[in-house]
């Protein structure tokens, strides 16, 4: 099984051309957007894509547009060759790895056609505040607030915008996002609805290790002891879920129990919110499909996790 | 010549399906977005589309998303049957008129798929501030400011968003916008670049009546005397352009001459700005491709006009 060699495409026009030629032959394309440094969570998204389409594109691109100036974009981990090896190992593999250098580089004259103006214009980055730099942003105005948007105010603006760009470059039929990043998944789903993209967004279930820890590339940075403590997130969420199933639907009580358990284990809670699955608005009692979202620090590792509660 | 009967499509899925089937047969599609109440300016955009593609779609949709609560959306003129007659009269005609009822109505469950949540959700409008209403907006953050964006702060947000929606529904190869709405044209062009839409944006030249007045549906509301006075816009812009051609490139002097001429004729200037053709930033001296943009009131009619100056 596996060992399919993906085509590596770095140019956006070439990427679109490939997609159009594939779709012209009545095939369907699934897109799995990633920032690379792949782990089994990503691989499960690719396997989800295989269920819906007969071609799969994985994009590997660390998006500068979702990092604040104070966040360290330059140290974001990457291992492109390792990623390719992992992609080859997946049953069915992937067809294309789209690996652009800079999606905010609009090239000579910044890509704006103007017959009268043939002079070269300096290429500027997306954070440039004047001239011909990138200045178009997609905002999902309510969903982007709260939870992770609270501490990272431009994060989801950057995510929605890069995903819109990738959708327009790859032109997929289906795009797969992990429910591990629940807020991100709902934001993309809403953007697709509101902007009428002809794309089906799939939310792939969160993957856990055997001990219950949600898979994340950050887990390797946990010491064995921290990892043990971090299991308190999953355990307390499970307890809250079964309590809700037994009729204990008071959100304050449920949140307090999770906060208490994580704190007892030695973690520091960033947020623990019970919210509506679609509007992401917080609720007092669980009377409709809810999701319990948690972010917590163990040592200097920030973990997120969530559990859907359908009463 | 003419009398081609367009297909009228009101459903967005049907619209996308038509486009995909047409493009699958190696055809190209041009889109001309309008709010209806068509005049010869619009018809010239359609003729421009014919030059680039072999199929043309005209959308007729009054976009609530670009009106402020204090602007009177409900009295925006419409004449759908008259529009169809005019479209039939154009040589080559149009293939499809896309005439949706409400592009912000996401239907049952608001279009968000959620297996666990089958209950009906109330449809809300784009101005709704809670629940499952439309909340995704495309902002072209610098170009949307200034000129017409000054007095209409949500206008270009609404324009960019509805055009993104129409692009995703119609999936055209080419889209035609009039240079009469210069700022709008540049905003759409920038959005297409920044979000990587696989669409070529064409700016169609501004059309003037024989006396030089820029064509607009608002011209019919001018009295014969007001119309005569309004010619001061075109005349003073022409004078400024030829002065610039002779080396008079001081923008303050050029602006003052236009403001003075319009004022003398009895008009009230909203703005008169000489700006860079792409960045739309104002300049002190015309040393690169510029455009002189004017908005002025004659009686209770607000007219806009512009002239490109390529020194």
Automatic annotation (TrEMBL), chains A, B:
InterPro entries: Pantoate_ligase, Pantoate_ligase_C, Rossmann-like_a/b/a_fold. Pathway: Cofactor biosynthesis; (R)-pantothenate biosynthesis; (R)-pantothenate from (R)-pantoate and beta-alanine: step 1/1. GO terms for molecular function: ATP binding; pantoate-beta-alanine ligase activity. It catalyses: (R)-pantoate + beta-alanine + ATP = (R)-pantothenate + AMP + diphosphate + H(+). SUPFAM superfamilies: Nucleotidylyl transferase. The keyword Mitochondrion does not apply. Pfam families: Pantoate_ligase (PF02569). It is an enzyme of class 6 (ligase). It is found in: Cytoplasm. Gene3D superfamilies: HUPs, Pantoate-beta-alanine ligase, C-terminal domain. Its EC number is 6.3.2.1. This is Pantoate--beta-alanine ligase. It comes from Penstemon smallii.
